[in-house]
Structures are given as C-alpha cells and as structure tokens.
Task: inverse folding
C-alpha cells in the first residue's frame, strides 16, 4: 500500500473526529435542554388545569347548540396548525409530524374538505411549499424556547377566521410529550370545543365527597363567558403544544446526536485499524525488501568468492 492512501485515511480520521466532537456537544446541549423543557411543562400544568376546569364548568351550563362547542357533523372548511422544529438533525421528529398532517389532509380532501394551513417552524414551511400547498400564515423562531407571547400570536392567527365563520374546524397536528422515552404524533380538535373536552381532573373529582360539586352562578351569562374564555383556552392549548413540541424536539435531537456520536466513534476506530494495517503491510514490505536485498548481496559475495577461488586454481 502506498503512503498516499495512509495520508487519505489520516484526513478522513481527522474529519470524523471533528464531526464526533460536534455531535457530542449537540448531544450534551440537547440533554440539558430536555430537563429545562420538562420543567417548563410541569410549571405550566397548574395554569392549564385551571383553565380546563373553568371551561369544563362553563361549557356544562351551555346547551349543545352553541357554535363554539361540539363536533361539526360535516366540516368542509378546516384550518390545520402544524408544529415542527426550525432546525433538523433531530431524527424523524419533523418528518413524522409532517407526514401525519399530509396524510390527514389528503384523506379529508378525498372527502371534499378544503384545508387552510398555519405552520409553526421552518421545516413545515419548507415542506408544504415544496408540495405546493398554500400557507395562510407561518411562524418561525419560536419552537426551541417558546413563550406565552408566541402562543398568543399563533392563537390570534387561528381565532380570527374561526370566529368570523371562515372555517368550521381548527385542528392541531403536533408531537405530544408523554415522557423522555415516549413522544407521539397527535391530531387534536382545538375549535370548536369538543364535548367533554377539556376533561375534569379525575383524581381531584374522586377525592371530593359526594355533593361537593357546588352551584355556579354565571355573570355574564355562560354563553358570553364561554366566548370570552375560548381565546384564552386556544392560547393555553398552543402554549402547551409548543412546550411539548420543544421537549420532543430536544429529546429526538439528543437521541439522534447520541447515535451519530457512537457511529462516528465506530467509524474512526475502523479507519484507524485500516490505517494501522496499511502501515503494517508497508513496514512488512520494506523489511522483506531489505531482507531480500541483503540475501542478494550475500549470494553475490558468495558467487564472487567462488569465482576468485576458481581463477587461482
């Protein structure tokens, strides 16, 4: 083997080691971000639970004829909010959400529905533009560390067409964060409020004695109060979805970067072994050449000695 191949392998090893350092750093950063994202999800739970309880009580006093509560029998105009990441390098996180949204829309279009898109994240924007789907509104730079103001911006973009009667149904496609090991793509109805959604807290309901539910008197009337609470509920839903999407993104990226680091380490080890084998072969060839040259010189000297002896005789 030539020394040129050894130089090529050295360059490849340096390149792989540089990549391994980057993936290891991204792995550690994502691992730290997961803990922060989980803490934010836990911190937001009391507020989300409070909004859900108020809505559950208010919605129970409103008849099923309300336009902001129930499941449309045959929705023809549907607004879909898709939440993914701004960046890649997070495994199949983005593609799983985007493919689920695309399948849902294709199935609905076969049934005669018309879809309007609102995207959160650069990857969703690029994906649907590539597939030729028009986007009503697009939000970027809010998925890594989302704030409540970000959720309000998304909610305002959704509430206006729904309250104006431009769409019959608002759906959300995003990743639900169950735990560090379980994240699932979920399609949810946001508006109108589905019957029984949001659900009451089963543990607290079970802890309350019978007859402790109490009586509620609404002012303004429950119908008007529900109309005021719906935008707040939408903001809460999107904020929780952004937090769970952020935690899922960091988890997927940490998993992908950990696998990439292991693969880079294995590749660098394989290349080092190959380079050592090439060096060993080169050294062996050089030793054989030296031994062969020494043997040739010995034979030449022996031949000269025999020739000199013959000439003297």
Result:
């Amino acid at each position: 083997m030539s020394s040129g191949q050894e130089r090529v392998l050295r360059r490849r090893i340096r390149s792989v080691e540089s990549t391994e350092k980057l993936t290891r750093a991204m792995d550690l950063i994502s691992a730290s971000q997961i803990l922060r994202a989980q803490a934010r999800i836990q911190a937001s739970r009391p507020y989300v639970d409070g909004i859900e309880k108020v809505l559950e009580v208010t919605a129970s006093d409103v008849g099923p004829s309300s336009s902001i509560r129930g499941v449309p029998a045959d929705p023809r105009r549907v607004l879909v909010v898709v939440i993914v990441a701004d960046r890649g390098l997070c495994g199949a996180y983005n593609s799983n959400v985007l493919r689920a949204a695309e399948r849902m829309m294709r199935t609905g279009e076969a049934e005669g529905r018309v879809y309007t898109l609102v995207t959160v994240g650069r990857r969703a924007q690029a994906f649907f533009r590539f597939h030729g789907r028009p986007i009503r509104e697009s939000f970027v730079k809010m998925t890594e560390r989302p704030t409540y103001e970000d959720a309000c911006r998304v909610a305002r973009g959704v509430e206006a067409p729904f309250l104006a009667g431009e769409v019959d149904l608002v759906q959300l496609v995003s990743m639900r964060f169950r735990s560090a090991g379980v994240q699932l793509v979920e399609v949810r109805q946001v508006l109108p409020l589905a019957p029984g959604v949001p659900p009451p807290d089963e543990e607290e309901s079970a802890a309350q004695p019978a007859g402790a539910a109490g009586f509620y008197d609404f002012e303004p009337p429950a119908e008007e109060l529900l109309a005021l609470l719906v935008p707040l509920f939408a903001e809460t839903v999107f904020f929780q979805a952004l937090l769970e999407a952020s935690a899922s993104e960091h988890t997927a990226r940490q998993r992908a970067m950990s696998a990439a680091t292991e693969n880079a380490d294995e590749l660098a080890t394989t290349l080092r072994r190959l380079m050592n084998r090439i060096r060993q072969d080169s050294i062996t060839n050089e030793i054989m050449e030296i031994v062969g040259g020494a043997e040739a010189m010995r034979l030449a000297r022996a031949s000269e000695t025999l020739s000199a002896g013959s000439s003297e005789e």
User: Anything to note?
Assistant: The chain has two domains: 3-18+262-312, 21-259. The first helix runs from residue 3 to 60. The two ends are 50 Å apart (CA to CA). The chain has a mean pLDDT of 81.
